[in-house]
Design a protein that fits this description.
Layout: E1 5-10, E2 15-22, E3 25-33, H1 45-67, E4 76-82, H2 86-103, E5 107-111, H3 112-118, E6 134-139, E7 144-151, E8 154-160, H4 166-176, H5 184-191, H6 214-230, H7 234-265, E9 269-273, H8 280-293, E10 296-298, H9 310-321
Parallel strand pairs: 1-4, 4-5, 6-9, 9-10
Antiparallel strand pairs: 1-2, 2-3, 6-7, 7-8
Helix pairs in contact: 1-2, 3-9, 4-5, 4-6, 4-7, 5-7, 6-7, 7-8
Bound molecules: 5'-O-[(R)-(carboxyoxy)(hydroxy)phosphoryl]adenosine and zinc ion (ZN).
Zinc ion binds near residues 112, 116, 140 and 142.
Length: about 350
């Protein structure tokens, strides 16, 4: 078999990342997370693109060094074309084009959302791969999608959020509770020792397999405002119960749609990805569903669930096999459907 070495670059949001793969095996995976956004409580696009510009060379150097690979041995450059923040995408796209031109090797464009899904195919002994067809649930601070995956590049979005992403629901609720950004992991942590049924938040009514999370954020805001008026220490005194109740509601919203998707498609393999798939409530509910509903859950290695370049590299590898190369005239695309 052939030896294919892909250098992959990801810069769609606030992580500058580079990875090197040897066929479907990962040799290195470097992520520079931008701390600059923390004090603003969310990603500031202008600051993100500047930080990418600063980080991209050192990150790529480190990825090549850790993989112990010389640039001249690379087979192709894969990069994130979109979706994402335009200013951020431009940094990775321009860099990838230049590198491909300088090294005289093929360029491969990658859709970030497809990459979150195909991350499951990075070869890892302890992480079994789903078989086609399967349902992919991609949940992060930027996306919430249910995708029917029939083959590597045969995918159909069958449900998605009509407003906020699920990660935003966590982060915005956390912000209302005075927790630092990103608050998702903190809600998860406090929820572990709280009562999930302490407070009830209404679930949105959305048709089909689509999601809505903006109503929950508003419900949490009104609830907290009302309670704090009566008791200024309400949040401190009931933090764990509040977090557990918010998380319970989010998990219920997701599970309702997954059950529906499984029923509707007859597909009972569910592969999750995106930063929110780290959430213990979601993991527990999906695992419990294996017994209850007879489905099979796939959760990739943690470093492949958040934004990373390894997932861009695995898509690059499969596209390389198909000789699906990209023309040098390619431009970044903030809204990029598949
Ligand atoms: O995939 P990711 O690193 O970046 C993108 O948004 O694309 O996802 C980050 C999101 C944030 O909203 C963060 O709060 C959330 O994932 N998150 C969690 C947990 N870990 C990360 N949300 C809930 N529970 C967690 N354990
Ligand atoms: Zn992402």
């Amino acid at each position: 078999s052939r030896d294919i070495y892909i250098l992959a670059i990801e810069s769609s949001c606030d992580d500058t990342a580079a990875a090197v793969l040897h066929n479907d095996k990962l040799l290195s995976n470097i992520v520079a997370t931008q701390e600059v956004h923390k004090k603003y409580g969310g990603v500031v696009p202008e600051l993100a693109s500047r930080a990418h510009q600063q980080n991209i060379v050192p990150v790529i150097h480190q990825a090549l060094a850790e993989a112990n690979i010389d640039k001249k041995d690379l087979s192709a450059i894969a990069f994130t074309k979109g979706p994402g923040l335009m200013g951020s995408l431009l940094v990775g796209t321009s860099f990838a084009k230049s590198l491909s031109m300088g090294l005289n090797i093929p360029l491969i464009e990658v859709n970030h959302m497809q990459a979150h899904i195909l991350a499951h195919f990075i070869d890892e002994e302890d992480f079994p791969k789903p078989t086609f067809p399967f349902l992919a649930l991609t949940i992060s601070g930027g996306h919430t999608q249910v995708v029917k995956v029939s083959n590597y590049f045969e995918m159909e979005v069958i449900g998605q959020t009509i407003d906020d992403a699920v990660g935003e629901a966590f982060d915005k609720s956390a912000k209302i509770l005075g927790l630092p950004y990103p608050g998702g992991p903190l809600i998860d942590r406090y929820a572990r020792t709280g009562n999930p049924k302490a407070y009830k938040f209404t679930k949105p009514k959305v048709d089909g397999l689509d999601f809505s999370f903006s109503g929950l954020k508003t419900a949490v805001l009104y609830f907290i405002q009302k309670e704090v008026k009566n008791n200024p220490n309400f949040i401190e005194e009931n933090r764990d119960d509040i977090c557990a109740s918010i998380q319970y509601t989010i998990v219920e919203i997701l599970m309702d749609k997954i059950k529906k998707a499984v029923k509707q498609t007859g597909i009972n393999q569910i592969a999750i990805g995106g930063g929110v798939s780290a959430n213990s409530g979601i993991r527990t509910a999906l695992k419990a569903g294996e017994q209850k509903y007879g489905w099979q859950t796939y959760i990739p290695k943690f470093e492949y669930t958040t934004d990373n370049a390894a997932m861009i590299g695995i898509v690059g590898y499969y596209k390389y096999l198909e000789e699906e190369f990209t023309d040098m005239g390619v431009t970044a695309q903030a809204r990029y459907k598949f």
